[in-house]
Amino acid sequence: MKTVCYMIPLPMSLEDSRRAFRYSLARSQTECSDDKDGAVVMEYEQIAHEKFGSGMEATNHYSFASRLPSWVTFFMKASSLVVVESTQVAGEWAKTELSSSFMAKMHIGVETRICSRRVNNMVELFGDAAKGAEVKVIDIMHDRMTGSKDPYPDAKPAEARSAYLGNGPFESHSWFENVAQDGKLCFAYKMVTAAAPYFGIQGKAEKLIQEAVKDLSFVTHRNMWLWADNWGPMSQQQVEDFESETMRSAMPKATSSNSIKNDARGSHQIQKDSISDVNNHADRALEQSALAQ
User: How far apart are CA 48 and CA 57, in angstroms?
Assistant: First the structure.
């Protein structure tokens, strides 16, 4: 199992980040989906978290068959190549867990905290699970995606300006040190835990998972800045209404296009494929691939 923590400076106040995060998550999820791959919203509801206030929880299915090598798709139908994401978001806190019927042994956990100050000891935020974890900085202005295709290839965050926030551009690589002097700065911290215990490829698989989560986090938080003049004039309630409308509108289209159904008890099943058969096929395929390398 590999655990990595990320620090992401954001050129906005903590209060602004609460609206920005909810807006960016909802909009990014729908805009980064297409006819072949993307998010399927299976369940969604707004909640009241006892510590962090108003929030939401959702269960999403992600289809990614077109992005896998042919040796993988040979073993199973495209409808089985789905990652299940369970997410809770409230205030400046979020927690996501991902699992897959394709890789039954895989588990990914992501916990997010947004703070108004710089935190050097990750244990302070995430407890003992963060002990000894490597800490990396994600620069939303100057970094680039490492392992995935950028869904917004024309984005130029370092050159952007925000009328609402009253800042930008941020062409200097030490931009967040300068912004800190004006007080319009907060930090998103993420603890990402990846487990993929497959013989021969565990290290490579867990590294790829970390890169994928890092890329996703980079895009989501970069968009928090780039879309500041969209969410900026909105109240918290307007952001929540936008989120609700966006998430719910994805349900019928996504469900029919990916052959996924939700039964009356709220459980999810993939049509035409036995999950246990898929798990066995996938595990054997991965281990055979490792032995062949």
Answer: 10
Beta bridge partners of 194: 2, 108
b/e burial code for range 145-169 (CB count within 10 A of at least 16 → b): beeeeebeeebebbebebeebebbe
Q: What is the rounded CA–CA span in Å between residue 216 and residue 232?
A: 22
* Residue 258 to residue 153: CA distance in whole angstroms: 26
The C-alpha R_g of the chain, in whole angstroms, comes to: 19
Quote the pTM value.
0.80
List of long-range contacts for 156-162, beta carbons under 8 Å, 24+ apart: 157/222, 157/225, 157/226, 160/225, 160/226, 162/11, 162/225, 162/228, 162/229, 162/232
Contact 147, 208 (CB under 8 A): yes
Alpha carbon distance 57, 55 (integer Å): 7
Q: Of 172 and 38, which is predicted with more confidence?
A: 172
Q: Hey, CA dihedral for 67, 71, 74, 80, is it positive or negative? A: negative
Q: pLDDT value at position 135?
A: 96
